User: Fold this.
Amino acid sequence: MAVPTDRRLTQRGEERRRQLVDYATARFAENGFHPTSVAEIVEGLGVGKGVFYWYFDSKEELLRAILSDAQHDLRRTQRDAIADAGSPTERIERGIRASIEWSIEHRDYFRLFQFAATDGRFSSNLRTGEQVAVRDAARHLAEAMAAGEIAAGDPELLSHAILGVHTHLVHLVHRGLLDPTPAELDAAVSFCLYGLLGPRTKG
Assistant:
């Protein structure tokens, strides 16, 4: 039986849960969710199945927990990145950069996001997280438009476009087709901000 949400784990319990999550994340990302069994996970950690089922009802619940933890970590990274930004445009720029860097660094999470998007058991939870991210980005875009910092447009549509650039870029990096140098990241962020016309100049 999974741990009830209202029961606090001891420090040792939290550490054991984290070990299960971290190990399963790596196995799911490397070997695939379907081929990876609960038996493989517990054998790899050197524990019994009872330990697994103390924390999670099933392999599916474990993946949902992994996806939720990953989405929360990404959002914390984004919030920290924009915390002291001075303008809406700066918040957008920092948020895009932080998102891309996080996805490049967390290859396993990114791969599991891509898998979850194709599986009906997990896609609805993933879409909920994406909707939150799009809504947050759209709010910053709308504020930048209201301040005259970027051209007027549909904030939600543009948020989806930014997400598409981010996702494709990270795919290229993980496939070894693009070296994520600072210059490449700058170019990607600049494209999201200014599109094909480039930054606007005053005068």
In short: Residues 64-197 form a domain with the Tetracycline Repressor; domain 2 fold (CATH 1.10.357.10).
